[in-house]
Structures are given as C-alpha cells and as structure tokens.
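[#protein-structures] MJ: dropping Molybdopterin molybdenumtransferase here for a structure pass
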Amino acid sequence: MKNAKLADIRPVLLVNRQKSNMRGGESLVLENIELEKAQDIILDHARVMPAGSLPLLQALGRIVAEDIAAEHDMPPCAQAAMDGYAVAEGGDGVYKVIERLRPGEISAVSLSANQAVGVVTGGPLPGGVVAVLPEEAVELKGDFITYRKSIEPGSNIKPPGENFLKGDLLVRKGTCLSAGIASVLASYGIDEVIVYRKPRVAILSLGADIVSHREIPMTGQMRDSNGVLLAGLVMQEQGEVIDVRVAGVDNITQIGELFEKLLERADILITIGGAAYGVCDQAFPLIEQSGADILFWGIQIKPGSHSGAAAIGEKLVISLPGSPLACAVSFNLLAVPVLRAMQGLAPHQVRLSAICTNAFGKKGGPRRFVLANAACAHAGWNVKILPGQKSSMTRAFLSDWNAIIDLPAGHPPVEKGDAVSVILLKPAYF
Ligand SMILES: Nc1nc2c(c(=O)[nH]1)N[C@H]1C(S)=C(S)[C@@H](COP(=O)(O)OP(=O)(O)OC[C@H]3O[C@@H](n4cnc5c(N)ncnc54)[C@H](O)[C@@H]3O)O[C@H]1N2
Ligand code: MOO
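AK: finished. structure tokens for Molybdopterin molybdenumtransferase:
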C-alpha cells in the first residue's frame, strides 16, 4: 500500500470510473456486469485450499480431499441376519443344537445335517450353514429345535460383501463428510481423513460512522451489525472467520495498513460498505491502492448492485455494499460460491422452481433478489416472500430465512401461486 490520503486517491478513482475505464478499447475495470459473469470471473480466481489430515470426528461437515475405497468386503464373512439357529442342508426338520454362540464368539464347527448352532444377529456363521431359522419360528425343546417348513437356502444370511465389496468407492473426493459416510469409514477403522482446509476469511467494515457492535455509538454512528451477519454466514459455509474489524475514522493510509495486515492472514478479505459512488466511499480506492487487480465493480442486480471483487496474488477481496439486505444478498451470490469452490465443492447452491404463497407488488426494474422462506410440502416446493425488505435493516433477518427468490429484470408483480426461481441457502441453524 502506498502512503496516500483519501484525497490523493479519490481522483484516481474518479478518473478511472468516469471514463468507464476505456483504454485503447479495452476495459480496465469491468463495470455493472451480469451476475453470472461476475460469478464466473471470481470463481476463476478461487483456488482450492490445501488439504490436511483430521481425526474423523473433527472432519465431520468438511470436504474430503481423497477418494477412499473399501479395503475389504463388508461384512467380511457370512453373518446371521436374525437371532436364531444356523442349520445345514438336508435335515428332517428336527435339529440338535450343538453350540450356542454369544455376541463376538465364532464357531469352530462345520454343521452336518440335523445339527444347529444358536446364532445372534450380525454374528459370524459356522461352516456348512444353509440358512438361519429365526428364534420365534422354531420350537425349542431341550437341546432340540423343530422346524417343519421347507427351508429356503440362504435365507437370513448376509453374504460376505453384501454391503460393500473390496475396492468399492466409499467416498469420492469433493464430498461433504456426513454422519452417514463417517459411520461407514468408522466401520472400516478409518480415524483420519484428508479434508480441505477451511478458507480463512477476514471481514472489514468501512465507513467513518461504523463502530464495533461492542461499542456505544455516538450520535450519527452506527454499530457494525453486518460484520456479525457475515461472520455467521461465513461459518455456516464452513469458512474460518479470522477477524471482524471496523475501519472507523482512520485515514485511508491507516485503513490500508489494516487491510494489508488482514489480507496477510486471510484467503478472502470481505469489505463491507463504502462501495457506492459517494465521495466518502472508500472501498474502490482502498482496494485499488493495495495493488489488487480489480476483477469487476458493480453487478446488474438489486439489492447488491454495488458489489465488486479483486484478486491479489492467490487471495481474493470481495467488496459488498453496506445496506444490510444488499450485504446479505450479495454475500450469498458472490462469496458463497467462492467459499464452496475453495473447499472443493461445486460452487453453486441448489436452485429450484417453487410456488409463491404470497404476492410481491414491486414490478419491473433490474433483476431482483428477495429473501424468502422455502419449504417442501406434498405438492412440491413453495416459498414465502418475507416482509420488511424495503428498509436497509430488514425485518426479514428475524424470520426463518433460507432462500432467495431470483426475479428477472422487468418482472411483473408476483402473484400468489406464481412459479418463481429460488436459490436454497443453508439453514440459519448449524
Ligand atoms: N449516489 C448514490 N448513492 C447511493 C447509491 C447510488 O447508486 N448512488 N446506491 C445506493 C445503494 S443501492 C446502496 S446498497 C448503498 C450502498 O452503498 P455503500 O456500499 O457505499 O454503503 P454505505 O454508504 O457504506 O452504507 C449504506 C448504509 O448501510 C448501513 N451500513 C453500512 N455499513 C454497515 C455495517 N457495517 N453494519 C450495519 N449497517 C451498515 C448504514 O445504514 C449505511 O448508511 O448506497 C446507496 N447510495
Ligand atoms: O444495490 Mo444496493 O447495493 O441495491 O442495495
């Protein structure tokens, strides 16, 4: 960061932006581009995090960075599927119980006709077994059982490899380690898994009027609620929040130093606010003066139009607008795909069509994103537009907000019963 005051930097910004950044027909900074283009550009600069080994339980929810194959058949040998009696072929319906196995015991015998061995569910079977007769299906008298019906060979026997065969792929690289997958790995005795590191994210709120949420604001100041919002959303996406800071009244040089310090430790630095065209807006000059390569500035969406991104070495800077609703929407549209890609996941969230259960009067204008609550009922997905999305601090944050509706540019008012395109977000509880 060069030592520069905001006043020194501002003309650079104005010159660049007023001229629409044309130099010999080539754009220096892409301005007000389509969302998908912005996503592609930023994703092109998102590198997958290095991978490292973690104990199985600590790796839950993380993205596995290796293919893991079954080392042997599961079950490794034939097992009883019922508590009961293992019998051999060719009996006449009456069998002598020659042994009664308890959990964990194995039999050394090989069954002959008219012999039975008592077995437990999941227990290994003796040699010569043709079927397992359930406890409740036989008549037990002393050391003998009677079973007069015909025996279907193989019944109530789990053959070796019934669940997995040696060499079967148990986990594919890029899969989220769910409780179910972890349990299969545990059954193979695997207690270390190689997973991608969490992307480290630093959050910096710009604006001389913004103070930490722990401080008492003076008249004209405002607490940094967006920093907390984004920290929570980053954690929901399995990112590691390394710092949440406010720039406050520091001059641009001091803010630049803080910016650089944060960027040293972070993979992604998200700035909040100061992203519009006001003369006090610091995001563009700050990022430009840091030497970062500005990838784009401005997207054709509402809210969140004043979003930008830059790359500096292998690190990314994402500049989000200060209005809380715009900040939340643009985080989900820009930062979430990046956080996913950096962890080795497919970048985009689930998108589906849902029926709107209420109306939304606002029509026309740019492509618009609306916070909503989506639910799946018998008839399919439905979605409710949450109230209070006009003011900057939205009441929708207090509701069960788990989706964003994507309304195309120039859309008519949404009527109850209309089908809309919905992006499903991670639930707010985690
Ligand atoms: N002349 C123009 N003015 C504005 C335009 C425009 O195109 N031309 N766009 C408007 C839109 S749309 C938005 S969104 C905002 C975003 O601009 P900034 O990113 O520069 O946001 P700020 O001015 O810094 O903040 C706006 C508003 O947001 C609240 N805020 C900011 N930071 C925080 C925080 N950390 N925690 C909580 N709340 C925060 C605060 O109410 C600010 O007043 O610009 C419009 N203006
Ligand atoms: O575009 Mo502002 O960033 O709409 O809310």
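MJ: nice. The helical segments are 6-18, 35-44, 179-187, 225-236, 252-265, 283-289, 324-342.
AK: one more thing. The two ends are 38 Å apart (CA to CA).
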